[in-house]
Amino acid sequence: MSQLLRISDLHVSVEDLPILNGVDLEIRTGEIHALMGPNGSGKSTLAYALAGHPKYQITGGKVEIDGTDLLALDPNERARLGLFLAFQYPVTIPGVKVADFLRHATTNVRNPNRKEGEGLIAMREFRKELRSRMEELGIEPEFARRYLNDGFSGGEKKRMEILQMAMLKPKFAVLDETDSGLDSDAVRVVSEGLARLAGPEMAVLIITHHERLLEFNKPHRTHVMLAGRIVETGDAALAHELHAHGYGGVRERHPDAAAQEKAALENAVAKTAGDKPAEVAAT
Amino acid sequence: MATDLKSDVGVGDYQYGFHDPTDQYVFKSRKGLDEAIVRQISEMKNEPAWMTEFRLEALKIFFQKPMPTWGGNLADLNFQDIFYFVRASEGQERDWSEVPEDIRKTYDRLGIPEAEKKYLAGVKAQYESEVVYGSLKEDLANKGVIFTDTDSALKDHPELFREYFATIIPSSDNKFAALNSAVWSGGSFIYVPKGVHIDFPLQAYFRINSENMGQFERTLIIVDEGASVHYVEGCTAPTYSSESLHSAVVEIIVKRNARCRYTTIQNWSSNVYNLVTKRAVAYADSVMEWVDGNLGSKLTMKYPAIYLMEPGARGETLSIAFAGKGQHQDAGAKMVHCAPHTSSRIVSKSISKSGGRASYRGLVKVNRDAKECKSNVVCDALILDPTSRSDTYPYIEVEEDQVSIEHEASVSKIAEEQLFYLMSRGLSETEASSMIVTGFIEPLVKELPMEYAVEMNRLIELQMEGSVG
Lengths: 283, 469
Prior knowledge:
The structure holds two protein chains of two kinds. By secondary structure, chain A is α/β, with parallel strands linked by helices. Chain A has a single domain, classed as Rossmann fold. Chain A has ten helices and ten strands. In chain A, the strands form two sheets. Chain A has a six-stranded mixed beta sheet with strand order 6-7-8-3-9-10, with helices on both faces. In chain A, strand 7, helix 6 and strand 8 (203-207) form a beta-alpha-beta unit. Chain A is globular, with a radius of gyration of 19 Å. Chain B has helices at 11-19, 35-44, 49-64, 101-110, 114-120, 130-143, 150-156, 158-164, 175-183, 416-423, 429-445, 450-465, and strands at 26-28, 86-88, 146-149, 188-192, 202-203, 218-223, 228-234, 245-246, 249-254, 259-266, 273-282, 287-294, 299-302, 305-308, 314-323, 328-337, 343-352, 357-366, 373-383, 389-398, 403-412. The A-B interface holds A 51-55, 74-76, 78-80, 84-85, 87, 90-96, 100-101, 104-105, 108-109, 116-117, 147, 164, 168 and B 2, 109, 415-418, 420-432, 435-436, 438-443, 461, 465.
């Protein structure tokens, strides 16, 4: 039985600045969707809003997984429901070993009703599984003892995100520019890793500018965002066109959205000039 | 939600049980402190005259010295309202039900073995680990190692004892050292002969302790040339004490090329004033390390010190302090460079939660002519909520210019991005906060013996659970 994530007319602001202006998107487990769009269009904002980041204010719309209201849940409840976000810039957690963190996370996600203080997955069983997943992703075993993301290169951080995905086996995985900043080898490893994980039980929403991840993970659908809305949906061919020719065509086809994008950018620049840090980076 | 460990669960109610003068479980001197009591203590212990004199001198100094005007709030400390000598009767056991419930609950959650629970709770005054200790004892004796309690050492090794006792911390050092010098009882005495390396940590539990429930312990450790030892005392589990004043003294001599590490984790119940004087002297090319964990008590004032006496000596103090509701941890370190080519390092990590207050108070002193010295201090504070507090009082006194002195300090709260990241992986807010806090102290916890490290992390988790809801 496939599950459905439905985003309806979602409006999101960051520090009272509207970023998402009515996003509609549906994705089923077993499907791979690509989400593309120029910088500032709201792609990452959508990802963070889905995950429940406290800075992202929901100002309208709904998000549901099989009818369950996602927006009413804490980030950890969303994770236990099967949502996963692979961050673009994963944060460092000093002093916390990768293995310890993963053991805890895996236990909770596999036992959504677990109460605090209850036992964790048996160590031996966990170690075995972790070792296999790490091997598959070409991650050195000693990484398990390192502190989470502490001193990791960009590529190592991205592979760590995929490792987490491999252990947590989410139903709805959102990958936020997982291919950015990686060399070709690293991208290939990540792509293959993703391909291995994706399947009928998993929906994958790949936020990207490139085709590289999509090579091994051909999208069923491609969505294009502009000025905080999805303006076009196509198939794999659309992703290819955007990668080859950029967003000029999209802007031409959707002049309203293009005008909004321009206005938002000018607004942001004006704010910067007035000594206020621009929020453009948020998208 | 788990009970907040640090809430005062009617300690007053239990006072009745423990302070009953007809209490058959313990011998207690009458309340208060005067010459007669000190003489009584010395007599009960059958001490040589010089020790009795020493105690009486110290008592005079104690009465003369004023209370410190810095540090924590000692206004409620009433010296005359305390029993200064408590000795548990042989074979008597207090009623387990008299121990506060939150303490009993914590023991269960930490999975403390039955016998240990009773010792910690003061239910059973003697913790006998003959089975464990028995075989180790022989091994140590063969090497010429002396490991006994201080009272016995005075009797059995009088010359060695007298040579070093009170040479590092004289009675006049400070008011509480004077107090300890007058009424000390119990503690460890360790002598490690030249070149002997003890591969396993010596633990306070190994020696039978029937005196004074650890109130005024006096520990003396001598590590002779080229030798090494690691001594561990204290316990992460809350140690229930009926007596509210604890004032210990620890003196350590580390001779040339020798090495000593002294690890303490203290988690006294929330009625205790824990005022400790700890000092070591380190000679040529020796290494002295204090690893100090302060989790409990109402107020702790403790600044483990190392005097680097000869070139090549190295000193390190690693300190963790956790101040919960109603607690003040005023802790730190002192490093005094008395010779050139010496180095020191202080790493202090403190956490304040639920209105607790954690202070770092430290001194780095470099005497004139102590050239080419290096010192590095890192003090990091984590404040978990708006009612909690953290202070830093670093003192740096350098009288020599060819030296390298570094001091870094940071104050932070739990970062929202870190919390969100962990929560997005299924951890609840409490679990995520707890993980971040244990990560914060991890560089120090990994220096602890394994069982302590595990217990420490477990205890932090329990503390954190008490903070939400």
